[in-house]
Amino acid sequence: MTEAGTAASSAATTLPEPVRQRVLTLAAQALGQLSATDIPPPLRRFASFAPAKRAKLSASVLGPILETDEHFRRMAAFQVRREHPALGDAVAEGVPVPTADPVEVAALAYLLRPDNWEEHVAAAAQVPVETPRADEEAVSRLSDQLDQARTETRQVRERLREQVNELKAENVTLRRKLNDARQRISGLQSELEQRTIEAATADERVEAARNEVDRELRKLRARITELEAIEHAARRTAGQERELASTRTRLLLDTVLEAASGLRRELALPPGGDLRPADTVAGTEPEAAPHGRTAPDDDPALFDELLSLPQVHLIIDGYNVTKTAWPNSPLHSQRQRLVTALGALVAQRRIEVTVVFDGAELSGPVQLNPPRGVRVRFSPPGVIADEVIRQLVRAEPPGRPIVVVSTDREVAESIITLGARSLSATSLISRIARS
Fold it and tell me: Please, what sign has the CA dihedral across residues 177, 178, 179, 184?
């Protein structure tokens, strides 16, 4: 070790206690600002401590290192000079600062090591130290202050304890109220959920009821519409039946009246029905002429005689006649020729004529222009013309003369049992040919 280092070590060991404490405080503050490479390993664990804690805990290690590690002392002195630039520069340059604290100057001089640093340490050692009496007075004063502080602390502690007890009691009350509030909230939430479920269920029931009412209403409306349609159809049917019955009755009455008038003319009956004086004169009366005759079904004279009957209805098996008269012509031509010829017959005789064609022969819509007074019917699907002819005969009132023209033996036999007269197609063809 050099003489300067020996002298420094010797001086350091004789540092006054206030100077030593201030040196350790300044070095501990500088320790927190040095890099890890500049800090000796034994001090590195103290670098992260707070300044006060660092100075207290590192004092036993920091003092010897400052005495032995010149590099660390210089790095610490550099940081201390940066923290105390005015006083540090004055001490380093040897400029006296009369107003400065000798202890502070001695501490900075020890770290900065100017040429007269030992003088500053010696000057700090000459600072008078308080006498024991002053220390006793200070201790007494501090004891009084400590007792007063303890009393105040005890009072404050009691007040704080009371406040803590009050706060604990208030906390218990608040906790109880909070638990009650939570229970009420939980109950309200449960009730709300139940009410929500009930409301949703009620909405579903209402919607289901509304749908059921709508269904029933639609059913009732459909039933009302159906009943109205049935009522309308019943009224229309009843009206048609009344009109048909009236027509049948009027037609039968006209037939009876005309038949009676024709019979009166045929029998040459006198206009009056009472006995005349001349009727009492005896004599032989001439025989009456026969009132009818028999003739074959194809006799044109018989055909004319039947057409002269009052209110006669002539029903014709259409294709039975046309295929007999014009077998080589197309069906539409056959139909038109027949209805045209019947139109001339209706104009001559003023009779009712109905022509029935078999609908099974049709391949599409029929284009036909029947003359006035000639009724044309086609049998519906699945029904033959023979059945339509029978329906026409059944529809007429009993007693009306009906003449059916058809060479079909089955048709002839069936309509005779219904009270109609049957003629062959040849008789109609012959009559048409004479027109």
Answer: positive
Distance of alpha carbon 230 from alpha carbon 235, whole angstroms: 8
Q: Residue 389: exposed, middle, or buried by beta-carbon count in 10 A (0-12, 13-18, 19+)?
A: buried
What length is written for the chain? Answer: 435
DSSP 360: G
Across the beta sheet with 374-378, the strand order is 374-378, 352-357, 313-317, 402-405, 421-423
Count Cα atoms within 13 angstroms, Cβ side, for 118.
11
Phi/psi of residue 94, nearest 5 degrees: 75, 25
For 308, list phi and psi in degrees, rounded to 5. -80, -5
Q: How far is CA 320 from CA 298, 356, 387, 405, in A?
A: 15, 10, 14, 9
Read off φ and ψ for residue 329, nearest 5 degrees.
-85, 155
Q: Give the integer Cα–Cα distance in Å for 230 and 243.
A: 19
Could you read off the pLDDT of 222-242 as tens digits, one per residue?
889 888 888 888 888 877 777
Average of per-residue pLDDT values in the chain: 81
